[in-house]
Structures are given as C-alpha cells and as structure tokens.
Amino acid sequence: MVSLNRTSDDNGNANNQQQQQPNGIEIDLDQIVRNFDQRTRIYEDAIALSTLSTNLSMDESPYCTETAELKRVDFVLVYQKSINDNDDAENPLNHEMIRRKFEANLMNEGLVLKHVPSSVGNNVNYVHIYGPYDVLARYAEVMAMRMPMKTIKTSLRYLFGEEFVQTGQTFTTVFSKEKEYLFNIPEHDKDEFFTPSQRGEIIDYILKRTRFKDSNDFFSIGIHKLLADNVYLAAYPLHDASKNCENPDDCTAIRCYLLKNWASLFCILKYQQVDKIVDYFGVKIAMYYVWVGFYTLMLIPAVAMGFLTFLYGVLTLANDQPTNDVCSTNDTFLMCPICAKNCDFVNLSESCMPAKASYLMGNFTTVIFAIFISIWATIYLEMWKRYSAKICFQWDLSDFSTIDEPPRPEYLAYLSRQKSTKTRINPVTRVEEPYISFVRGRLPYFIMSFSFVMLSVAVVLLIMVSIIVYRVSTYIALSTQHQYESEFLRQNIEWIVTSTAATINLILIMILSIVYKRLAKWLTEMELPRTQNEFDNSLTLKMYLFEFVNYYSSLFYIAFFKGTLAKTPPDGALQTGKLNKLIEPCPIGGCYFDLTIQLVIILLGKNLFSSILEYLIPYLYGVYNRYVYFSNDKKSSSSSSTSNNRVSNRELKQYEQDYLLESWDHSVLFYEYLELVLQFGFITLFVSAFPLAPFFALLNNIFEIRFDARKMLKNYKRPVAQRVKDIGVWYTILDALGKLSVFTNAVIIAFNTDIIPRMMYYFTNGNLKNFYESTLSNYVINVDDEVRDNNIENCFYYGYREKNGTYSEQHWHILIAKIVFVVVFQNVVTAINSFLKVIIPDEPGSLRLRKRQHAFITNELIIQHELQSQQQNLQKQNTN
C-alpha cells in the first residue's frame, strides 16, 4: 500500500549498479575444501585509519593539471573573484593565495581540476573536480568501502540451488587496490566502477582532509574551514542535468527517473524506489525515507483501530443515556456561575455539545484503543529494528563502522585564536592533535546552555499561563454579554473559547519554534563540539527538549492539571475576593473535550504550516539567488566588455543551476526527523483524546514523502552521500515516547473522561440512567456570594460533594478506582511490551542465515579468484 519500500529496481535486481559479469572458470568445491587449510586469508575487512596521511604525495601524478579536458565532473567548488585585482591582495585572509595552495594540494592528491568562469559574465567562478579511478580506488580502500565482486561459475550453486544464484544479489567485500582482480571493474571504462554518489563521497572525504597552507598548522585543513571563511562560496556534487528531465519518458538519468516515479503525487500509492534513492543520495538520506515509509505503513493498523473507536462513538451516541440526559434536562438543573458578579447561571443542557463531543472521542472503546496504541508503539519499534537490519544487510552496512571525523571548522577556529593549546593523542588515528579543556573551555558554555534551556522552558510556561488568563477572561466576557441573545453563542461558548485559545497558542508555538531553532544552534556552537556528529547529538537533545515543552506543555496542562485545583462554590468561587483567574474549571464530563480541541488544532495546524514553509522557503531561496546572480551579471557587465551576451536561467549550465539552489546541510534532515518524531509523540502520548490522530498523521506522511522528495531533487543542492547503520539517537527518543505514552494515556482516560465513574455507576445501578445527576452537587447560595440573580436560592456544580462542601464517600471511591486503573493499566501494558521485546528478535532468523551464507560464499569467491589469478600467472610464466 502506501509508502512501502522496495529494494529492487524494475528488473528485479537488488543492486542498481548493472555491469557485465565476466564468465569465470569452473572449479570443484571439493578441491577448494581439501586445500583450504593450506591457505591464509588474503583479504582484511577493516582498514586501519591510522595509515591515512592527510598529505599523500603525488608529485609525479599525470593528473596534476588544470588544463586537461575533464572526462566528467564529480564535484564543484564555487568562489567569487573580485573585479578589482587589488582587492584580493588587500584581503587579510588572502583568499586567492589560499585557494591556489588548496587546489595545488588537491592536484597533488591526484584530482583533476579545471577553472570555469560563469556563463553570464559575472565574478562567480567554478572549479570542476574529476576523480580518476586510481585516486578513488586508493581512498575507497582507506574508507573501507564494500564493492561488488566478480561472479564466477562454481559448484556452490549445487549447494544453495539455482534460486539463490538468480536472486540478483551482488556479493561484495571491502575494496583493496592490490586485489583488483576480485572486483567487477569494467574493462572498457574503470570510471564506471564507482557510482556518482560514491565518487562524491570519496572526493568530499579528500576535501575535508586537504591542507591549504604550507605549514603543518592543524587549523589549516579542510573545505569546511574554507567555506566558513568565505574562501569558497559552495562545494557540492552535481545533480543529473535538468534538461534530461524535460521528457522523463525518454530519460535514463536517475534524477528524472526519481522525479517521475518517486517525487510525483501520482506515485503516492506506489513503492518507494529505495535502491535508486541510495544510488543518488546515499545511505543516510535513503535511511530517512525508508524509516518514514515504514512508519507510514505501520500507521495503517492504528488508523483502522482509531476509525473503529470513532465509529463506535458515532453509532452509539444516539443511544447513550447520560448524553441524552444532559441534552434533555431543560431547566431541571441550573448550573452555578463560574465567577462572581458578572457570570450567569446556565442550564445543564447548554453542555450538550461538549458532552456529545466527549462521548464521540472518549467512550469505553477508548480504553481498548489506548492499550492497542501503547502496544503498537512497541511492536512498531521492534519491527523497525528487524527491518533496518534487513536494509543494512541489503546495502552492505552490517559491518560498517563510522570513520573518524575531522574536527569542525568552528572548533578549529576557536583553537587558532588561543595563545596556547593543549594536545593529546587521538585514540582512533593515534595522531597528536590540540583539544579544548572541558573544565576551563567548555564547562562554562554547558552551564550557560543549560540556563538558557531552563529560561526557554520558563518562557513557554509563562505563555501557557497567559493563554489560561485569556481563556478564563474570554469565557467570562462572552458569558456576560447580554446583548448577544444568540442561542448558538450560548450553546457553543466552550467551542469558541477553546478553539480561539488553541489557535493563539499554535501561533505562539510556531513563533517560538523559529526562535528556538536559532537559539539551540547558537548554544550548541558555543559548547564547541569537536565533530559534526557530536554537534548533531547535542543539537538533537537540546532542540527536542525545546520542542517537547513548546508543543506538549499545553496538552499536559489540560490532561493533568486543568480542573484539579478549580474552585467550587463552597470554596468561594462566587466571591470576588477569592476569584483566581489562573484556575479553570472543566466542563461537564471532564476536560476531555478541551484536550481534543487543543490536540486537533495543534496537530493539524503544525503539519499544514510546516509543510508550506518547508517547500516554500527553498523555492523562494532559489528565486532570490537567481535574481542576485543575474543582478551581479548587470554590475559586472558595466565594467567588462566581454559580458554582452546575456543568457536566460534555462540556458545556465548544470553546475550554475545547482549553485543557485539552497545549500544542503545536516540541519535539513535533522528537522525532517524532528517533525515526524514530534508527530509520533502526538499520536502516542495523547491519542486517547483523539482516535483519528493516526489517520491525519498517515495522510500527512503520504504527501510529506513526495513533497520532501521533490524538494530535495529540485530545490536543494545534491547532498554528499553518507553511510549510516540506523536512524541514530532518534530511535532512543521514539522508545522513550512509547514508554511514556503508557502512563499519559492511562491518566487521560482515568482523570479526563467519565469512563471510570460510568463503570462504577453501571455496576452499582445496572444502568446509566440519571448518571450525570449523580455527578452533580447541590449548593445553597448564601449572603456572601455575589451573583447576578439574587432570586435563585440554589444551583448545581460538577463534583462529588456533601452539602457542607466536603468530599463525599463516592468521591473517594471513584478516586481510588481511578488510581487503581492507572496502576493496573501501566503495569499490564508494560509487562506486555516487555514480553514482546523479549520474544521479537532484533534480526529475523532468515536474515541471520543469509548473512552466514553470504559470508561463506564471499570467502569462497575470494579463494577461487585467488586460485584463478594464480593459475593465470602460472600460465603466463609457462608461456614465457
């Protein structure tokens, strides 16, 4: 159905890298086994990164030239050259000299560079980079890339069967340049061996580790430092040519294939082309889409259960005795005013609409649905672990270990400004490098960061208090407006107040979210994390804490606190001096109705607002960049006689079109994850308040996948491919939300619905007739109460109280029942979840078997290739 992930292309092949597989010789397996003990393993699966030198010498490389015609463009650097030649000399950073040294070192590494001016005649220049096979092969070995091996006819097919051989699975092993004969390298063109995304990944690896000064200064290394200092404006691998996508039916480029078969809204019911995504964007981005697709697929049973819960409420609403009693009371029960002086007495029947809405969303099937969702969250996470293990095996990432990252440019910039720095040995590379003392250098910033986080939480709470004041004030104001005799206003005042307050809250949440993004990033920068991975983890924790409080605080207030401290008439609610506008009462049936309205507006409003901004901002960024790009053309044309030929945007070269797109950085994918993790929190923590939440999440995700795909293909520069094994720290957050949801749903059902009181009343009386009458207490108005109508002697209010205002025995019985329900719910569901985690293995048994088979076959293929190579060498020696 929707968003299923397919890991094969249209021809059923598991690997999109289709190359001709040469026929090998047939060798008997028995001979291999007999001679196996006499051989040693000729290949290592791990490359020691300590052998890496950031300044490998290639002085005699034949590729050290800027004038050679490039066979292909793998990477592009962009810089802006001043129109006045003297500007660079006056620049304290001396950008021109730094660029020359950096590019010379790149050519010493073996890369081929070519400078290309802008086609519109402005002062933007491009450096095209081509990675020859020898260079890519050398670094592929350093990066421990697994590459496809040659196939060979062998008697193994008789052991595993023809079906195993014909699955299309390519066997891979860690690349070794000395053992090239093991790998399926095209003889006609070795450049086709590495895919474009792999070529970009390798060149990015080189760029990050190349120096731009003559000295061995630790701070003068890496393209990111040059980008931070504006020596270069951008660095990116190229997209497939846009002109190839004008007629997708005739196009073979992966980009236009994905635009037609993945990013189109016509594909919302089709499988995601996961292998194509890996080929084009790399594993990290593909892993995100695999996770979104799997999450969306797993929402289907939650949607079905939510619809059943809501449908039960719709079908039984007309026959619900307590709701009918509320709507038909007329003048029987006159409810007490919620404030002194200006508030009116109201009939219980005016709570008819909130009572109906509460029953629709919160009937006895809600308990079953809450249990289902709590268990569903555990099953989803356990099944994701199994599925991600399968995907990692499919993408040859089962044995992947993260390569040691270079320091961030901001980290190096801070160190370079220090008069003296301490050094230590890097435990991975065994290279001496400077570092920042945690106590003196970083601890003060951690304390400052923590203080800002607490301040931000306080701001959110202050805004929540302001919303409470608005709700109470608006309710009182509308209640006292006698000129509005509209029946609609009188019956829907709760809807109006709750909806407007939730909308205002949503607007403030979105504004705070924008502020928090900048604040969290600034605080993380101040903490000086050494690597990008450390930066991402710190930002994730900080930003999620911000957004958790920002989005969920109002929901937690309604679910846990609203109404619990509300004053009743016996407590002085009808006396002016004792009125507290910060304490809200709940309507008849509890605060369930308010919680539902708040959840619906925040969930739907956030999804709509975020979707519009996510697509609109990159598009407007591109429009602005094109305007500036051609504006610079006008300026430069006034000072250059060679700029007379004007070109349109459609005539720009592909590398220029890519430059005008918004730059891709780590934060883009981070905020995509954050948005969906927050959504997961809504549909687990508070789903008992709105059973249709999974449906709207499913609907959002179906379009989110396609919109995000189109945005990445059309509005962003092509990201550098990265390898990862999982979704990282996000899984830990999802697991924590799943565990917390058990408690929140138990409390919402127990204390924000009338399910428990209904059950106790039914067991006592055998029916629910006059149930709401039993939940009301009678209050005799005294002389100290300030009410509008002094002729009324008594009124009713919601609560289980005696005439003197003390809690009745029934109140304590119901309270104990609610607490027991929470404890039983929490423990039973937690026990079920723990049992499920034990019985569901992290990897399917079939996958473990397949891993062992592949390891065995890969080892045998290596041995047989070795024997074949030795036989060929012997034949050559005999011929000579």
From TrEMBL:
Pfam families: Anoct_dimer, Anoctamin. The chain crosses the membrane at residues 288-315, 359-381, 445-473, 493-516, 599-621, 676-703. GO terms for molecular function: chloride channel activity; protein dimerization activity. Keywords: Cell membrane, Glycoprotein, Membrane, Transmembrane, Transmembrane helix. It is found in: Cell membrane; Membrane. It is a multi-pass membrane protein. GO terms for cellular component: plasma membrane. Its main location: membrane. The keyword Transmembrane helix applies. PANTHER family: ANOCTAMIN (PTHR12308:SF83). Belongs to the anoctamin family. This is Anoctamin. The gene is LOC113799302.
